[in-house]
Amino acid sequence: MAKATRDAYGEELAKLVAENPKIVILDADLAGSTKSAVGGKVAPERFFDMGIAEANMIGVSAGLAASGFIPFASSFAMFCTGRVWEQVRNSVAYPGLNVKIVGSHSGISVGEDGVTHQAIEDISIMRSITGLQVYVPCDQYETKAVIDYVAEHDGPCYVRLGRAAVDDVYDADKVFDVTKINVIRKGTKAAVFACGLMVQKTLEAAELLAKEGIDITVIDVCAIKPSDEEGIAEVLAEYDQIFTVEEHSVMGGLGTMICEVAAERCPKKIHRIGMYGFGESGSWQDLLKEYNLDGEGIYNQIKGYME
Amino acid sequence: MDIKQLREHAKNIRINIIKQVSNAKSGHPGGSLGATDILTVLYFEVMDITAENVKTKDRDRFVLSKGHASPALYATLAEKGIIPAEELMTFRKLHTRLQGHPDMHSLPGVDMSTGSLGQGLSAAVGMALANRLNKNDHRIYALVGDGEAEEGQIWEAAMAAHHYKLDNLCAVIDENGLQIDGWTKDVISPAPFKEKFEAFGWHVIEIDGHDYEQIKNAFDEAKTVKGRPTCIVAKTIKGKGVSYMENVADWHGKAPDAKLTEVALKDLEGM
User: Residue B47: which domain range?
Assistant: First the structure.
């Protein structure tokens, strides 16, 4: 079944807000799009639309958290990370306040809205903030597990979600440990680390490669920070051909994180597949194709490096 | 209200502001001295904070949105017996609980970490919303610098506080008219505050920020206002009490040397 991770977020939030009176929901005029409104409907007295004023939304979340609440603050990834980076750093992370920032519409798969709305730096800038955890789930089930996890974890978190409906990677009954990597396809020729929507696209690439007798391992890396260093190092040790795939700048995101782990634990040559510049307008499918981040594009890039 | 007693507290606080900044050889004396009378009335006449209840949320809370006035807050907490007075001499030194700008986790009595201007009022809005949700009748106070109000986030917070009818929130604008680069009217004027906050839907009271009765009356009036937040616009003198610091922008963020410290302490003893 295809479902957007943001839809899974709304459903899980609706469940959590009904169960836990400490959860409050904030949005910045995008509640219908981020799906925080789905949770808001369940507990309207604990839903606060802060309007098109993201900086204040983060500060208000900090004040609510300083009073014992667990705020989920949502907007598009661009506006709840880049626009408010310093508020997140100084009002949330420095005091270690229990705020959950959930950014939907991340990456170029926002589509037609174009560059101004395509966050391809959010993982990088959020990852660098002390004490802030970062998760990038790939499908509805992993998203729900991540939302459950961050609601339980006492501390600031950023969760990166997408706009587009994406295929399930996991079964409904999968039991997740969102702090660990998930090897979801096992091969021998190469290991490919991916996150978010790129997990599905890398699986498509793996199918194309398999037809040519090239079996690759595909690893879903949901926990960007703290990362599963142990698990990543084990995979690195096993393969000579290593790739990372992300719908994000190749600077500072998943690829960089894997390179950091490799540099310290298991040095390997690593090819980073991702965005090397700004995107543009277009349907999300056309954009992934244009930037070689659809199944075929990833297949071509991996094959190109391997030859 | 014992005005003589308040004056004594304020004098001690001002002396400790100078001692902290002088000892640390850095810090912000001007805005701290200017805000002292407001803090004195807040902590000794208005808020129900004590050394016993300081670690709970079952009391009034205060956000120093203009976090650089930390010496004033620390000296007030010491005067109140919440932190030891000797600790003031650790201000800004390695491993201190008295960080350059207030850290809510290191020091009891600091209700929000602040320092980056424009952010504290938003946190105060969140605390006021939280109190309403928790049916906690205690009030939230925030002290905002006039220069700080040049930050757009202050007005985002003002909009939200009115929209959510936060009558348990009271902000004080510390209008000393000065900022680092000079007079606010010359740098970029954030005024007029009364008209702006009224346009944002707040109840506004203008006072002399050094007149204890006016300060107390304003906080009392704010408690009676229903359905909207109150903004007290307090005219203050930056550097108040130290002859050579009064109304001099240069004393925003620098420490007096030994000789000038002596002059300052002498000025304050005579207050």
Answer: 3-269
Decide if A66 and B127 are in contact by the 8 Å CB cutoff: yes
* ipTM for the complex shown: 0.96
Q: Return left, alpha or beta for A131; rule: phi > 0 is left, psi -120 to 50 is alpha, else beta.
A: left
- Residue A54 appears among annotated catalytic residues: yes
Kind of pairing between the strands at A47-49 and A23-27: parallel
Chain A, chain B: beta-carbon pairs less than 8 Å apart: 109
Tell me how far apart the alpha carbons of residues A228 and A202 are, in angstroms, rounded to a whole number. Answer: 20
Pairwise CA distance, residues A294 & A208, whole Å: 12
The two three-digit tokens of residue B199, written as one number: 């346009």
Q: Work out the average pLDDT over B182-199.
A: 97
- Looking at the DSSP bridge assignments, the partners of residue B174 are B145, B234
This model's pTM is above 0.95: yes
Structural domains for chain A: 2-167 (3.40.50.970), 182-306 (3.40.50.920)
CATH number, residue B187: 3.40.50.970
- The token pair that represents B113 in the structure block: 């970490």
What per-residue confidence (pLDDT) applies to A12?
98
Q: How far apart are CA B38 and CA B40, in angstroms?
A: 5
Note whether A64 contacts B: Cβ–Cβ < 8 A: yes
